Amino acid sequence: MLEKLGKALKKFHDKIANALFLDKNIVDSIVRELQRALIEADVDILLIKQLSDKIKKAAFDERIKEIEKKEHLVKVLHDELISILGEPKILKLKEKKQTKVIFLGLYGAGKTTTIAKLGNYYQKRGKRVALVGLDVHRPAAKEQLMQLAEKNNLKVFLDFEEKDAIKTYKKLKKELDKFELILIDTAGRHTLDKELIKEIKDLGKEISPDETILVMPADIGQAAKKQAKEFQDALKISGVIITRMDSSAKAGGTLTACAETKAPVYFITTGEKINDL
């Protein structure tokens, strides 16, 4: 999807660059093509309309000289796309201090698998990484995390007896001191209900994470906006990891949601394998 959108944007740029002058027909034609590409990418319709209006306004702004108008138009598009899709941002770990990262997400988002991928990513870069399983609700969540850790030679901390996430963390806390990066799996739900909100808020207070990452599938579409806002209201999201980018997902809805919550996309997952990050 991103490649397809990229090609459409390049075409938009080339049409502007190659036009002798920007009359109404050319601008309307360019805007229609751009709208089609963004709709296919599942970007929010209201945002597409706002972008279209701004491009048209810039194209017919009499204060801008014709010779500078093309550059101005390309800059408007660039700036507006950044506001819609967001800018790339790197997940920064603390120097010589421990970094704690909590992962949030609904059922089926790929949270547990993503934690293992991230653990593997940073361990390969020389970090002492620990995975912590605090999903006490989903059957087999702890087993899944343990299997992924063992398969990829990652340290994992779990308590198979304890049914309370905060008590589990308190029990394991001392053992985590020697690790530089702590990646914490939490419970999901089918929806973000009051019980889940309370649990993640309580965990946030207990753990005081340096990063709170929302794991969101690319194929969620327009529902991404509502989900991202609900999580953001419950516990401030510092970043997002988008999963299932290898599917036929359009992903524009997910990227739009991230930009609206001002939460940058740190990573995307592009397959099932441990290195597909």
Which features characterize this protein?
Four Helix Bundle (Hemerythrin (Met), subunit A), alpha/beta, 2 domains, Rossmann fold, single chain, elongated, seven-stranded parallel beta sheet, 277 residues
In CATH, the topology of the largest domain is named Rossmann fold
Rg value: 22 Å
Largest sheet data = 7 strands, parallel
Task: Provide a count of the helices.
Answer: 10
CATH homology-level superfamily of the largest domain = P-loop containing nucleotide triphosphate hydrolases
- First-last Cα distance: 17 Å
CATH class of the largest domain: Alpha Beta
From the spread of the alpha carbons, the general shape counts as elongated
Order of helices and strands: HHHHEHEHEHEHEHEHE
Helix proportion of residues, in percent?
40-55%
Number of structural domains: 2
Average residue pLDDT: 85
In short:
It contains ten helices and seven strands. By secondary structure, the protein is an alpha/beta fold.
Overview of this structure, please?
With 277 residues, the chain is α/β, with parallel strands linked by helices. The protein has two domains: 2-85, SRP54, nucleotide-binding domain (Four Helix Bundle (Hemerythrin (Met), subunit A)), CATH 1.20.120; 99-268, Rossmann fold (3-Layer(aba) Sandwich), CATH 3.40.50. 49% of the residues lie in helices and 13% in strands. It has ten helices and seven strands. It has helices at residues 2-18, 24-40, 45-59, 66-85, 111-123, 141-151, 165-172, 194-207, 223-234, 252-260; strands spanning 99-104, 129-133, 155-157, 181-185, 211-217, 239-243, 265-268. Strands 3-2-4-1-5-6-7 form a seven-stranded parallel β-sheet, with helices on both faces. Strand 2 (129-133), helix 6 (141-151) and strand 3 (155-157) form a beta-alpha-beta unit. Helix 1 runs antiparallel to helix 2 (24-40), helix 3 (45-59) runs antiparallel to helix 4 and helix 4 crosses helix 10 (252-260).
